[in-house]
Amino acid sequence: MLKPVNSAVIIGSSSGIANAIVDELIEDVDIEQIITISQNENSNLSGNHGNDINHVHKVCNYSAQSIANVCQNLSSIKGYLVKVFICNGRLHSVNTEDETAISPEKRLEEINPESMQALFHSNAIVPMLWLQQLATVVNSKQNCVISVLSARVGSISDNHLGGWYSYRASKAALNMLLKTTAIEYARRAKNVKLIAFHPGTTDTELSKPFQANVPEGKLFTAGFVAKQLMKTHQQLVFDCKAEFLDWQGKTINW
To answer: In this model, does residue 24 exceed pLDDT 60?
Structure first.
C-alpha cells in the first residue's frame, strides 16, 4: 500500500541511470517514499534503505493498459508526487526470436522499418503514454518535476554529423511530445515542470558498443549523471514550459 507522503517515481528503473537516481533519492531527506516501475525485477532495489521502496513489477511490454493500471494505483498518492523520472530508452539490441538486431544506421541503406518502429515505441511512444496517464495523478498544489531522459542527438538544430536515423528521429519526436505536453499541462497541471534531460555519454549497457570513440573525460558514471540531474532540479523555475537541458544544466536548442 502506497503511503500519502512525499514520493518519487522512477519509471524504467532497471537501467543504470535509474538505479543511480534511486541511490540519490535515498539520500534525499525530503523524499519519504520511492516507487520504482520496471518490466524486470531489480534485486539492487531491495533492502532497508530508510525510505520505503515499492517496486511495481510491470509486464505486457509497457502496453497502454498496463501503464493505465499502474497510474490508477499511483492515484492514491495524488498531491504527494514530488519527482517523476521516465528513464525508458533504447539504442540497440541483439538478435532474438522476436526481432532482428538493432544498431544505429550509418547509411540510408541500413534503415529498417521494423527497427525504426521499435525505437520509436521505446523512446517516444512509451514515455508519452506515461505522460498521458500521469496528467491527472500529478495535478495538485504540490510542485512536481517530471524528468525524461532524452539525448542531444535528438536536437534538430544540433545535427551536423547525420547518421543514427532512427535514434535521432525517435528522440526528436520525444522532445516534440514533451514540449507539446507542457503546453497542455500548463492548463491542466500548472504545478508540473517538464524537462528533457541529456545525460551525456554514460557508462551503461546502452552506450557500451560505442564507448571506444568517446573522448577522454566524457564518459560519465551513472552516479555522476544522477547527481547532475538533481543539481539541475534545484535551478528549475516552475513556469509551465518544457526545457531541454544537458548534464551541466545548460539549455540545448530543440
So the answer is: yes
